[in-house]
Structure prediction request, 386 residues.
Amino acid sequence: MKKLLFISSRPIFPMIGGDQIRTFQSLRLLTKYFNIHLIIITPTDISKERMAEYEKYGTCRYFKMSKREHFVSAMRFLYNALPVQVNYYYSKKVQNYIESIVDNYDIVYCNNLRTAEYFRRHTSVNRVIDFVDAISMNYEKARKHANLLMKVVYNIDYHRCKAYESLLLQEFDCASVISDVDKRYILRNSKMEKGIQVIGNMVDVSEYVQEIEGHNLAFIGKMSYAPNILAVSNFVKNVLPLVRNKIPDVTFYIVGASPCKEVLKLHDGKSVIVTGFVEDISEYFNLASIIVAPMLSGAGIQNKIIQAMGRGKCVVTTPIGAEGLIIKDEIAIEKNDNDMAEKIIFLLNRKDVRCAMGRNARKYVQQHLSLDAISQQFYELISPLL
Prediction:
């Protein structure tokens, strides 16, 4: 088997965010075809027990980067043209290690554009980049809702990411992205015509659809992620009060790791519950009559939505949340706060409609996001390198 060097900008385990789910999927599928050496950039030491998880998929080496090191590295953006986040994840220690081993490998795989800089000059090895999302599109949306300081940061990285995505598409041998929406965005801003393979995210499918009673809503996602913070903050401020006017006992659960201060302030212990990290999110999927994903920014397919669909849950989201999903009536897509509130009220009062939507959502996942479907998409990406 050929030898592949796999680099991840963050630890993969425990999987508490969509980026980790995506990275693990790639790693899992690549082990079918290559002998893998993993490079992990991490803020803390990785325990022996955790290393054993990585070593199921290949040999592994990790490099610690403290917050201070990340900050110092990020400041390089003042004198180069790279995106701030690419600078943020750049380490000379990692670069030196790569220089010492890269000639021993046939292929390198970058789990997102943050890790691509390590390999741009290594043209003798086949290079694969998973863009995951069109990050430039994410920042284009995010800057519209940000405060003044973050608007400046997002604006800088919007322009830089747009140029960088185009550059990597030109330089790397193979590229993938999570949806056709992200693919079209990158190609529209690119200086060249080149193929990008669309690879969705695999989703587990429940054996049956649970018919949930009650008036519980849930949002599930990593709560230090800016689009998630914006989504739940706006929902609590502008949507939930409208729902409570008609259904006073409604409860909104915000489920996910690393809630920031802004999110923690939403917790009132009654109508809004912020859980923080939970070992098993199944409890909250099972508790919720409706999964809400009121996204106002972000890019790519939302894992929170497709996971809910795979479990046969009724989902209410926005056009941004539904981007990349070619759907009809499997989920509810509402364009503004008032429409979202009205739809939630209707669905909480109509169990039959909720369950029918959940069954249709589950069928969609079975057809488009199963292991067989995603494995075939992934094979089309790496087959030229075998």
